[in-house]
Design a protein that fits this description.
Blueprint (H helix, E strand, L loop, with lengths): L4 H12 L29 H4 L8 H7 L11 H21 L4 H12 L7 H25 L5 H8 L3 E6 L10 E7 L4 E6 L5 H18 L5 E10 L2 E10 L3
Parallel strand pairs: 3-4
Antiparallel strand pairs: 1-2, 2-3, 4-5
Length: 246
C-alpha cells in the first residue's frame, strides 16, 4: 500500500502479462443490461454487499430499515485514517515548498501531532512507514530529475491517490464509494485490511472494479489486497495481486 514508482512499474508489467478472465457481459459498462443491471433502485455500500461489519447481514438490514445501531471503532480505523492523512500530507508538503527528504521527514514528524485517532501507537507505526518511504523517494526523484515542477515531483514520489471516490450508482452502489488507494497508471484499486484474509475482501475489489468500469468504460481486471498488522510495536504488511474474474 506504500507504493513507489518502482512498485507501480512492476505491477504494470505483472498485469500486462497475466491473461484476463472477465466475460464481456459482466463488464461494468454494461450496467443497463442484465445481469449487471441492478435489480433495485436502492443503492448499497461495498461493505453492505460483502458483510464487512456483520457475517449475518443483520447490520445492513437494520441500517436500511431505519434502526440506529451503535458500532465500536474497529482496530483498522486508526490505520486507515493515518494512512490516508499521511499520504495526503506528503503531497501537500511537496506542493508547499522546495523540499528534500530530510526536510520532509522533519515536517511530517510535526504534522503527526495534529492527527486525531483512537490508537496513536497504530497510527504512529503507519505514519513512520510513510515518512521513511517517501522521504527516500523524494531524494531519489530529485536526484534523477532536479528541475521537475512540484506537480510532477509529487506524482513521481506518490504515484497514486488515497480515498479515491467512485460513483457506483449505475451498478447499484452508493454514489461515493471510496477505495483506499487507486493507481491510475495500471489501473488498479488497492484495499488495506486488518485481521485474517477473507473471501469477502476479494469480492469488494470486484465491486470497485464494476463501479470503475461503469464510470470510465475501461477494464479493471485486477485489484490489490494488503493486510496490515502490528506485532511487537512494528508494522507488518502482506500484499498480493488479485485477479478479478466473472
Amino acid at each position: 500500500m506504500f507504493f513507489t514508482l518502482s512498485d507501480v512499474m512492476l505491477l504494470s508489467r505483472r498485469t500486462r502479462n497475466t491473461p484476463r478472465s472477465v466475460s464481456e457481459e459482466l463488464r461494468g459498462w454494461n450496467w443497463n443490461e442484465p445481469p449487471v443491471y441492478p435489480p433495485s433502485t436502492m443503492t448499497l455500500g461495498v461493505s453492505d454487499l460483502t458483510n464487512g461489519l456483520c457475517s449475518t447481514g443483520r447490520f445492513t438490514f437494520l441500517k436500511y430499515t431505519g434502526k440506529k445501531v451503535e458500532i465500536k471503532p474497529l482496530p483498522g480505523t486508526s490505520i486507515h485514517e493515518a494512512y490516508a492523512k499521511g499520504i495526503e500530507t506528503v503531497k501537500r508538503l511537496i506542493y508547499e515548498e522546495d523540499l528534500n527528504g530530510a526536510r520532509l521527514r522533519t515536517l511530517m514528524e510535526d504534522e503527526f501531532y495534529s492527527l486525531k485517532v483512537d490508537d496513536l501507537n497504530l497510527a504512529k507505526a503507519v505514519w513512520d512507514r510513510i515518512v521513511n518511504t517517501y522521504s527516500a523517494e523524494l531524494d531519489k526523484a530529485k536526484g534523477r530529475s532536479p528541475y521537475l515542477s512540484r506537480d510532477s515531483l509529487a506524482s513521481m514520489v506518490v504515484p497514486f491517490s488515497v480515498e479515491f471516490p467512485l460513483d457506483g450508482t449505475l451498478v447499484g452502489l452508493h454514489e461515493a464509494v471510496r477505495a483506499d488507494a487507486f493507481i491510475p497508471h495500471v489501473p488498479i484499486i488497492a484495499e488495506m485490511k486488518t485481521g485474517k484474509p477473507r473471501r469477502q475482501h476479494e469480492l469488494a475489489l470486484a465491486a470497485y472494479a464494476l463501479a470503475y468500469e461503469s464510470m470510465f468504460e475501461y477494464p479493471m481486471d485486477f485489484g490489490y489486497l494488503c493486510y496490515v498488522q502490528m506485532r511487537d510495536g512494528k508494522l507488518f504488511d502482506s500484499c498480493r495481486l488479485v485477479q478479478v474474474g466473472d
